[in-house]
Structure formats: structure tokens, C-alpha cells
């Protein structure tokens, strides 16, 4: 049976057309995020858009590569047992990724903001562990913030588990430098979003160190990157 | 009895799943499929975890047909290929397609909205007893899966969606 489409609709317009009926959740520098129903399931659609200032062929290649990297990173994490949304469909013509919507969850950011620090120890430990696992798989998240980590409540209320989301800037790398930078990004985001949580972050790093087989090299690089940061004197 | 879902991305396309038990003519059906005489995909239901799996495979197949990038020769064979987590076509057919001697068959048809006559005609080719498609195949097939059945489906579906770039 041949597939028919109205003449005015090119293949790469199928998904954007569909998205007009979807709820726009977020507009970022790289992509738009929508919520909708897909094949009977609540779904998140991530649409990377073209950058007009780029040369067309280059833009196409770059955008495609980013989409592929994102999707590969998600699968790598999942294979290693790290919770990340399941991918339902990828349209490489419109650079759209259809992902599982994680229901019954809240961001770690919101959780920290509404919880006493004394009760956040376990969370810090969990985060450290999950990041250690991810880096041991050589997946660099690229945009680690507490908004990109979800706490999903389990159905029978058996506590909650952590789910990593937004792998838009992710890539594969074994270099301790890249992992160190990944942690540095989290540290900056963490401390600026949640004031006076240095001790908590230290616990996170401790948990990371205990859970990762390659942590010492990474933490060494983290120290170096910290020294390199903005407004740091490289003298002496 | 049938499970029907319209493909949101391809509004003129609807996917209907029909499950049959005590099938006596699996060999004949398989030959019809190979010859292109049956307008549906014949799938081995013991390999299925959930109807959603079939929908994901069908959606991808229709998409690839539309952009002219199918890996197999027909929409129906593409659906079967998409069910497999690997890129080996013959392996996909062997594991997910109907084999001679199979006693149960899942028939999947991609069609326009109200084509009940077409579905009846295709279903008539199967010599077996039609049973309802359950949301949870585990119930129908007593496959022993652990509690994390939901996760298993997600794992399967995710692999299906990404395999071409892994």
C-alpha cells in the first residue's frame, strides 16, 4: 500500500505540521520542546531547528549530528541501567526526537528548593552515584543542572528514582578532562541555583568518587578546571 | 477484537492489529506474504511485549516509506524488520515474522480509516480463531517477565527507534 500525503506536505513537514497541535513546553537556543500524545502515550517531542545564519549544508549536517549524538547517548545510558527517557521515534528529516514523557516526577531543582538540607543527603548520594555510572560509560551529559534531573515517584511509593533528561549537548568521551568539565558545569549550576549548598555538593562528589572506578583522574581535572575558570589569575 | 490506532503523523493511515490462535495454515500464510498476496504483516506474537511495540514499528515503516528510505521491499516487511533490535533483515524475519508451523499469528494491517471490508477479507485468509488483543501480551502468552515489564517494553521500543544509528 502506498503512502499518500497531501501534495503540499513535504516529508520533512510532517512532524512540524503535527506539532502545531502540540503544547510548547520550552524554547531553547537549540530546540523547542513539546508535550503531546503519540500512539496512545504521553510523549515529549524535541524539535531542533535550523540556524539561518549557517550555511545550509553545514547546518543540516551539524543538526543531524547533534540529534544522533543525543539519541546515542540516551541509549548508552539506558543500556548501562541509567534511567533516561525511552526514545519512541526519530525523524532525521525534521530533526525531531519523540521521547517518553516521565510522569509523576519533579525536578531535583524543585526538590532541593523545597527541602531541608539535612534531608538531602541521600539525594546527593544518589546523584553522585548516577553520574559516576554515566561517566564510567563514557557519556558526557554536557548540560548537567538540577533542572535536568528528575525524581520519579514509584507507583507503590517505594521511594523515588533519579532520571536524567535533556541529552541535547551530550557526546561520548573517555577523557577525564571532559568528565571534569561535566562536573564543573554541574557545580556552577548547583551553587548558583541553590545558595549555601557547598557541603551538599561535596557529599555528591564523595559519592561520585566512591562509585566510579575512574574518579581520581576526573576529580583531579575538576580541580584544574576550577582554577582555570573565569576571573582566575593564572599568575604564580 | 481488533486493536486500532490512527497514526498521528500520517493522518490517512490507521494501524489495525488482529491476533489469531490455533492457526492451521501458517505455512500457506507465510508463502502468501512472501508472494505479496496478503496485504498485511504477519508477525510472531510470542516475540511481542505490548501492542505499542507494533505501533512504533509501523509508524517508523510508514515514515521511511514516505521518504523513500525503507530497508526492505514493502511496507509490511519493513514493519517486521523494524520490530527487530538488530539491523540484520533475515534475522528479523526469522525471529519476528510468522514461521511455518506457528500456532498463533499477529496480523497487522496499515490502511485508510474505514476499511472494515478490507480487514475482513484479509482476516478471512487466516485459518484460526481470532482473539482480543490485550494491552499486556504477558497475560495472553504467559511469558514470564519480571515486574519491570513496563521497563522491558521501553527498552525494546527504544532499541527499535535508535538501531539505525548505533
From TrEMBL, chain A:
<dbReference type="GO" id="GO:0008033">
    <property type="term" value="P:tRNA processing"/>
</dbReference>
<comment type="subunit">
    <text>Component of the EKC/KEOPS complex composed of at least GON7, TP53RK, TPRKB, OSGEP and LAGE3; the whole complex dimerizes.</text>
</comment>
<dbReference type="GO" id="GO:0005634">
    <property type="term" value="C:nucleus"/>
</dbReference>
<dbReference type="GO" id="GO:0000408">
    <property type="term" value="C:EKC/KEOPS complex"/>
</dbReference>
<dbReference type="GO" id="GO:0005524">
    <property type="term" value="F:ATP binding"/>
</dbReference>
<dbReference type="InterPro" id="IPR008266">
    <property type="entry name" value="Tyr_kinase_AS"/>
</dbReference>
<keyword id="KW-0547">Nucleotide-binding</keyword>
<dbReference type="InterPro" id="IPR000719">
    <property type="entry name" value="Prot_kinase_dom"/>
</dbReference>
<comment type="similarity">
    <text>Belongs to the protein kinase superfamily. BUD32 family.</text>
</comment>
<dbReference type="GO" id="GO:0005829">
    <property type="term" value="C:cytosol"/>
</dbReference>
<comment type="function">
    <text>Component of the EKC/KEOPS complex that is required for the formation of a threonylcarbamoyl group on adenosine at position 37 (t(6)A37) in tRNAs that read codons beginning with adenine. The complex is probably involved in the transfer of the threonylcarbamoyl moiety of threonylcarbamoyl-AMP (TC-AMP) to the N6 group of A37. TP53RK has ATPase activity in the context of the EKC/KEOPS complex and likely plays a supporting role to the catalytic subunit OSGEP. Atypical protein kinase that phosphorylates 'Ser-15' of p53/TP53 protein and may therefore participate in its activation.</text>
</comment>
<keyword id="KW-0597">Phosphoprotein</keyword>
<feature type="domain" description="Protein kinase">
    <location>
        <begin position="19"/>
        <end position="236"/>
    </location>
</feature>
<protein>
    <recommendedName>
        <fullName>non-specific serine/threonine protein kinase</fullName>
        <ecNumber>2.7.11.1</ecNumber>
    </recommendedName>
</protein>
<dbReference type="InterPro" id="IPR022495">
    <property type="entry name" value="Bud32"/>
</dbReference>
<keyword id="KW-0378">Hydrolase</keyword>
<dbReference type="Pfam" id="PF06293">
    <property type="entry name" value="Kdo"/>
</dbReference>
<dbReference type="GO" id="GO:0016787">
    <property type="term" value="F:hydrolase activity"/>
</dbReference>
<keyword id="KW-0808">Transferase</keyword>
<dbReference type="InterPro" id="IPR011009">
    <property type="entry name" value="Kinase-like_dom_sf"/>
</dbReference>
<keyword id="KW-0723">Serine/threonine-protein kinase</keyword>
<keyword id="KW-0539">Nucleus</keyword>
UniProtKB/TrEMBL annotation, chain B:
<dbReference type="InterPro" id="IPR036504">
    <property type="entry name" value="CGI121/TPRKB_sf"/>
</dbReference>
<dbReference type="GO" id="GO:0000408">
    <property type="term" value="C:EKC/KEOPS complex"/>
</dbReference>
<dbReference type="GO" id="GO:0005634">
    <property type="term" value="C:nucleus"/>
</dbReference>
<protein>
    <submittedName>
        <fullName>Tp53rk binding protein</fullName>
    </submittedName>
</protein>
<dbReference type="GO" id="GO:0002949">
    <property type="term" value="P:tRNA threonylcarbamoyladenosine modification"/>
</dbReference>
<dbReference type="Pfam" id="PF08617">
    <property type="entry name" value="CGI-121"/>
</dbReference>
<keyword id="KW-0819">tRNA processing</keyword>
<dbReference type="GO" id="GO:0005829">
    <property type="term" value="C:cytosol"/>
</dbReference>
<dbReference type="InterPro" id="IPR013926">
    <property type="entry name" value="CGI121/TPRKB"/>
</dbReference>
<keyword id="KW-0539">Nucleus</keyword>
<comment type="similarity">
    <text>Belongs to the CGI121/TPRKB family.</text>
</comment>
Amino acid at each position: 500500500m502506498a503512502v499518500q500525503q497531501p501534495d503540499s506536505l513535504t516529508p520533512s513537514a510532517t512532524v512540524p505540521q503535527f506539532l502545531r497541535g502540540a503544547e510548547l513546553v520550552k524554547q531553547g537556543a537549540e530546540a523547542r520542546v513539546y508535550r503531546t500524545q503519540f500512539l496512545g502515550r504521553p510523549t515529549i517531542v524535541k524539535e531542533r531547528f535550523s540556524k539561518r545564519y549557517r550555511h545550509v549544508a553545514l547546518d543540516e549536517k551539524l543538526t543531524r549530528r547533534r540529534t544522533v549524538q543525543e539519541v546515542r547517548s540516551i541509549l548508552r545510558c539506558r543500556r548501562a541501567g541509567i534511567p533516561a527517557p525511552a526514545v519512541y521515534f526519530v525523524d532525521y528529516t525534521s530533526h525531531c526526537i519523540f521521547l517518553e514523557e516521565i510522569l509523576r516526577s519533579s525536578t531535583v531543582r524543585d526538590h532541593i528548593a523545597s527541602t531541608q538540607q539535612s534531608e538531602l543527603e541521600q539525594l546527593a548520594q544518589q546523584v553522585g552515584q548516577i553520574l559516576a555510572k554515566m561517566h564510567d560509560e563514557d557519556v558526557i551529559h554536557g548540560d548537567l543542572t538540577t533542572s535536568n534531573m528528575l525524581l520519579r515517584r514509584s507507583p507503590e511509593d517505594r521511594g523515588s528514582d533519579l532520571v536524567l533528561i535533556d541529552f541535547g549537548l551530550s557526546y561520548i568521551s573517555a577523557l577525564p578532562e571532559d568528565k571534569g568539565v561535566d562536573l564543573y558545569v554541574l557545580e556552577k549550576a548547583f551553587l548558583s541555583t541553590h545558595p549555601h549548598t557547598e557541603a551538599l555538593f561535596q557529599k555528591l562528589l564523595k559519592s561520585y568518587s566512591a562509585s566510579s572506578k575512574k574518579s581520581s583522574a576526573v576529580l583531579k581535572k575538576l580541580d584544574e578546571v576550577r582554577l582555570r575558570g573565569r576571573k582566575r589569575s593564572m599568575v604564580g | 477484537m481488533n486493536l486500532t490506532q490512527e497514526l498521528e503523523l500520517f493522518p490517512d493511515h490507521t494501524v489495525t492489529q488482529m491476533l489469531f490462535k490455533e492457526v492451521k495454515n501458517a505455512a500457506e500464510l507465510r508463502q502468501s506474504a512472501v508472494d505479496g498476496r496478503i496485504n498485511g504483516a504477519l508477525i510472531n506474537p510470542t516475540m511481542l511485549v505490548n501492542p505499542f511495540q507494533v505501533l512504533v514499528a509501523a509508524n517508523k515503516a510508514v515514515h521511511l516509506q514516505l521518504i523513500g528510505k525503507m530497508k526492505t521491499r514493502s511496507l509490511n516487511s519493513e514493519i517486521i524488520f523494524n520490530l527487530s533490535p538488530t539491523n540484520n533483515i533475515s534475522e528479523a524475519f526469522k525471529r519476528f515474522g510468522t514461521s511455518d508451523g506457528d500456532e498463533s499469528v499477529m496480523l497487522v494491517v496499515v490502511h485508510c480509516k474505514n476499511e472494515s471490508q478490507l480487514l475482513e477479507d484479509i482476516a478471512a485468509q487466516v485459518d484460526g480463531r481470532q482473539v482480543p488483543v490485550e494491552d499486556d501480551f504477558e497475560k495472553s502468552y504467559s511469558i514470564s517477565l519480571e515486574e519491570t515489564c513496563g521497563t522491558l517494553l521501553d527498552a525494546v521500543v527504544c532499541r527499535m527507534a535508535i538501531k539505525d544509528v548505533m
